[in-house]
Specification:
Elements (H helix, E strand, L loop, with lengths): L1 H6 L2 H30 L7 E7 L5 E15 H6 L10 E8 L3 H4 L3 E5 L3 E5 L4 E6 L4 E11 L2 E5 L3 H46 L5 H32 L2 E6 L5 E5 L3 E5 L6 H17 L2 E2 L4 E2 L2 H32 L4 H13 L4 H24 L14 H25 L3 H9 L4 H30 L4 H4 L26 H10 L4 H36 L1 H4 L1
Antiparallel strand pairs: 1-2, 1-5, 2-3, 3-4, 6-7, 6-11, 7-8, 7-9, 9-10, 12-13
Length: 551
């Protein structure tokens, strides 16, 4: 009976089903962990106040967010140096995010559960999200204007919110002036400098051009001085207000509102207030620039850079991949050379991505980019323009990386088009190119689109080659802005995959960066899942559209 059962193939079916189920459970488990840790990062956690006894018997108070709890067996805890009583089976520790790094030098502390005397959640505890030094936890005491107290007691919270709203508006105006207006003027000055050097190299720098350039520089100077005067006025206003808060030790700290992003009282928030705060923080995460070595703030530049690179990569890889597949399937003579090319294309799909990065750095950046600089940008020497990693070379490198996927998918789609379709089109008087354009390619479009979207999904998650050909930890400006020529292909950019690597493994503050790693990973996974779902929907739509022709 057992032999017959094995011969029937049922055991192998059950074995495959078990393997697939195990893989699905593991994938769902990983995604669930990432989703829980990443999405929960933006929820307003309660602020706890713990009274605990140190080893020397002194009782102290600590306030902050309860981030994590660990349970360590007694034997393992004793082996690492902890002293436990004979009746203690485990060592329970709490990880508390205490913030106040400018005062204590650390954001997090471990507290042993056996040392905790009391634990409360006072309603008046505040969380101050700052642009520098991370969060501050304490109690609000007063609001000052030009060093003088203007509010304290019951009115202090409302006055603080009004002044903070004004300070945030001023900060937006300052950022706009510095990045947009003054940034455009500095860009204009740099373009004038390069143009002047170019004219000097061509021996075309004369009295007429000197006068012309002097007029343009004078106009820039007028605008620059005007914006500087506006900036000085705004800085004077934003530095006027500050808040006064006390820590758990009773120390008093004055925090300028110019350095504050948000002040909240999580312990007073209801469910709806926390939901509103959650979506606000999620929006800030998606729309703001990073701060504090990428451990605070948002990831908008990384999202923008990833999308820009993927779009450019798609524009480059699609025509080359489709044309190569059409030639191999429809025009090339099917012989030894064609088979060799197909083998080479299939092998290229398995080449490690870092090899493409090394090739892109050596050929595109140093050879091609260096020659472009010497031919078209001699005035920029010795500073490189295209002879350095940037958006263009990263896009082309990833286009090479994903080209085999597009070629193979398109060629398989062309092979599935019935021969009778081609013959019928030619019999009706259509040329071969018309047959391809109007009949064959539309019917092969499901496979083409699937290959393209799979290539996009892979490119969105690649990191290794980008580290060599254009991605950086923090890009000062976006590749797309309001300065001519608007799309700057020579600029370096940020990428979601590299951002995860940098924050997770290169961050100076590992505990503070961990929630951001989960949140960014969740976003990247959602992007890739969305792309694959789009591929399935597009493929199914196109299959239904051309099913009648295939029949």
């Amino acid at each position: 009976m057992i032999k017959l059962w094995f011969k029937s193939g049922s055991p192998w079916i059950w074995l495959n089903a078990a393997a697939v189920s195990t893989c699905l459970i593991m994938v769902v488990g990983v995604l669930g962990l990432v989703a829980a840790r990443g999405a929960g990062h933006f929820w307003a956690s309660p602020i706890v106040s713990m009274s605990y006894q140190e080893d020397d018997g002194q009782v102290k108070t600590i306030i902050g967010e309860h981030v994590d709890t660990t349970v360590t067996p007694a034997a393992m805890a004793k082996s690492t140096g902890y002293k436990l009583a004979d009746n203690e089976d485990v060592l329970i520790q709490y990880l508390i995010k205490t913030g106040n790094r400018d005062l204590t030098g650390a954001d997090f502390r471990w507290i042993q559960e056996r040392h905790v005397k009391t634990q409360t959640t006072p309603a008046d505890m505040i969380v101050v999200e700052r642009r520098e030094w991370g969060n501050f936890y304490g109690q609000l005491t007063a609001v000052k204007e030009d060093g003088k107290v203007i509010a304290s007691g019951e009115k202090v919270w409302n006055v603080l919110q009004e002044r903070l709203k004004s300070a945030l508006t001023l900060h937006e105006q300052i950022t706009h002036l510095e990045k947009k207006e003054i940034g455009a003027i500095n860009y204009g000055f740099e373009q004038l400098r390069l143009k002047q050097k170019s004219l000097e190299l061509k021996n075309a720098w004369n009295a007429e051009t000197v006068k012309e350039f002097a007029t343009k520089k004078a106009a820039y100077d007028v605008d620059y001085k005007r914006y500087q005067a506006q900036l000085a006025e705004l800085y004077q206003k934003i530095r006027r207000d500050s808040l006064v808060a006390t820590t758990e030790s009773g120390a008093e700290l004055v925090i300028p509102l110019s350095k504050v992003v948000e002040v909240t009282q999580p312990n007073k928030m209801g469910t709806f207030a926390k939901i509103g705060h959650y979506f606000k923080k999620l929006g800030d995460f998606l729309s703001e620039d990073p701060r504090e070595a990428n451990t605070e703030g948002g990831i908008f530049p990384a999202i923008f850079g990833t999308i820009m690179m993927v779009i450019m990569m798609s524009i480059i890889v699609t025509p080359f991949g489709v044309i190569a597949a059409v030639y191999l399937r429809e025009y090339a003579k099917q012989g030894f050379t064609t088979r060799l090319i197909r083998i080479a294309v299939n092998n290229l799909a398995g080449v490690p991505s870092i090899v493409y990065g090394v090739f892109g750095l050596g050929f595109f950046v140093y050879i091609l980019g260096g020659n472009i600089d010497s031919l078209f940008f001699p005035e920029s020497a010795p500073a490189p323009v295209f002879g350095t990693p940037g958006l263009l070379w990263a896009s082309i490198t990833l286009a090479l990386l994903t080209l085999p996927v597009v070629i193979v998918s398109t060629e398989e789609g062309l092979a599935r088009v019935p021969k009778a379709i081609r013959e019928g089109s030619l019999a009706l008087g259509a040329t071969k190119i018309e047959t391809l354009w109007r009949t064959v390619l539309p019917m092969a479009s499901p496979a083409m689109m699937t290959g393209l979207i799979l290539a996009v999904a892979r490119a969105a998650g690649e990191v290794a080659p980008l580290m060599l050909v254009g991605v950086v930890k923090l890009a000062p400006t976006l590749p797309l802005d309001g300065n001519y020529p608007f799309l700057h292909l020579d600029r370096k950019f940020m990428h979601l995959g590299f951002h995860i690597y940098d924050v997770g493994f290169q961050s100076p503050n590992v505990e503070a960066a961990r929630p951001l790693v989960y949140a960014t990973s969740l976003l990247l996974v959602l992007v890739i899942i969305g792309l694959n779902l789009a591929a399935i929907l597009i493929r199914n739509h196109l299959r239904e559209k051309y099913r009648a022709l295939e029949g």
